[in-house]
Design brief:
344 residues, HhH_base_excis_C, EC 4.2.99.18, class I DNA-(apurinic or apyrimidinic site) endonuclease activity, multifunctional enzyme
Length: 344
Amino acid sequence: MTKELLWNKIPIIQTELNLSKVLRCGQTFRWKNINHEWSFTTQDRIILLKQDDQFIHYSHIMKHDTNGTSSQTLDFLHDYFSLDLKLADLYTSWKTSHKKYEKGISPFDAFQGIRIIRQDPWECLISFICSSNNNVKRISKMCDSLCSEFGTYINEYNDYKYYSFPTAETLAQPDVEAKLRDLGFGYRAKYIHQTAMKFTSPDFPEITIENLNSLRSKDYTEAHEFLLQLTGVGPKVADCICLMSLDKHDIVPIDTHVYQIAVRDFKYKGKKELKTMNKEVYHQIRTFFKEIFGDYAGWAQSVLFAADLGDLNNGTNIIDIKKEISKEKAEPVSRSRKRIKVEA
């Protein structure tokens, strides 16, 4: 039995951080909304969040046989959501820069409270390898599978079992690629396994978790080149990792979707339909957005992306335990939370 939770609160309004937007807009893929509480695991605890108009309420459940404090959870949240940064100031600047391009309601009015989260670089790396030619729902299922199959059991809450994100050492084991293929990861199974092997093999002495984490203090070019050594990491995935885990706030990851936003909404002179994204065009679009939005162009682009994302409120990772239990009683089919099949 889980002891009664102690909830604390952070005074923050939704225009500074809107959990339902930030946690569903394609930055991170493991947060669950279960019975209207957001939940996520680190290596040693389940973190729980709720939000109202004035506060984010937070609590945690520790891994079995471990101890932890609320202050540690608070420190994690401050770092993860970059709460020292005042988002209102950035939005004011972006709205001014965007004004000459406006058609109707500005996305910076319609989608407030979106900030870039500061993820663990290893988890961000593997998650975005999963993102290749994929959508948010399927990426989320893949990340669930990685944790339940290869992570460490943390604890249970509301009849849901939670696991940590697997380490490089675990994903480098010989049987991992085959297991991932059985789970429906397709070609991504090879990418994940080979990348994990690079982080654990003496054949690649410079590719370590320590060096990956140290890229937060390196310049963009060094970080980008390091990431491109890894299997399954191209320019866009590398830029997602730079922006969302390595403190490269001005970096705008570019794909055909972002290219179309530039042409359609920002009068970028290019073809309406782009079949291939070459290196020159990629660099031009990234520079184009930085010239408009400045040092936090990557943050601004995340708002534009969220405004353009058709499935932002599609129910991804929303679970109603009462409905799940009722469904199981009505349909007594054997199901394991430890194995989630994902179609590739």
